[in-house]
Amino acid sequence: MPSPTDTMDGEDEIDDEEDRPRFCSLDPPHEVTCKARGINTFVEFSEACRRGQLKEIKAMVESGEMDLTGVDGQGKTPVHVAAGHRHCHEVLVYLLGKGASFNRRDDLGAVPLHDAASHRNIVGIRQLLQCGAEVDVRDRRGYTPLFAACKATAFR
User: Fold this and answer.
1) Per the record, where are the segments of Acidic residues compositional bias (predicted)?
2) CA distance 89 to 125
3) What structural domains and CATH numbers belong to the chain?
4) Residue 156: its pLDDT value, please?
5) Are 29 and 101 spatial neighbours (Cβ–Cβ below 8 Å)?
6) End-to-end CA distance of the chain, in Å?
7) Residue 151: what pLDDT?
8) With b meaning 16 or more CB within 10 Å and e meaning fewer, what string describes 46-75?
9) What does the DSSP assignment read for 3-40?
10) Which of these, 53, 137, 136, 135, lies nearest to 95 by C-alpha position?
11) Burial class (CB in 10 A: 0-12, 13-18, 19+), 82
């Protein structure tokens, strides 16, 4: 089991491709970029993710206006944002289907599964696990997604 001090910059690969749903991507992490209108594009994209506005998200991605590897000020990708909101399961499926990484770490070392677990997003947790998201991954504090879920439940 990794310690909280282990490096957190790599993504582990999953070998079981036939068990993975068709909307999952195992592409290596990409450079963090926002195309077209820069950071404003990512802010608009993140807000559309938060609101579950799939139509707007599709338009931004398919026009090339938004690169799915962009991050916000905390290093969170659109997958982190969608995973952290219970009403965004269709957005999450779409993002994963377009090849967005489900194991990318934010600035605190958390992966989207941490966000889904800490917001008690059961559907999001299932989608990420079906893609092969690591269950035992630890953020920089040493928290696993299970710990994040327990902590979220204990204080609500």
Assistant:
1) 8-18
2) 10
3) 39-153 (1.25.40.20)
4) 57
5) yes
6) 29
7) 86
8) bebbbebbbebbeebbeeeebbbbbbbeee
9) -TTS--S-------GGGS-TT---PPPPP----TTTHH
10) 53
11) buried
Please tell me the pTM assigned to this model: 0.71
Distance between CA atoms of 52 and 98, rounded to whole angstroms? Answer: 16
In this prediction, the residues of the chain whose per-residue pLDDT falls under 70 are: 1-40, 154-156
Residue 154 is predicted with a pLDDT of 67
Question: Which residues are CB-neighbours of 95 under 8 A, at least 6 positions away?
Answer: 49, 57, 68, 78, 79, 82
Other C-beta atoms closer than 10 Å to the C-beta of 141 total: 11
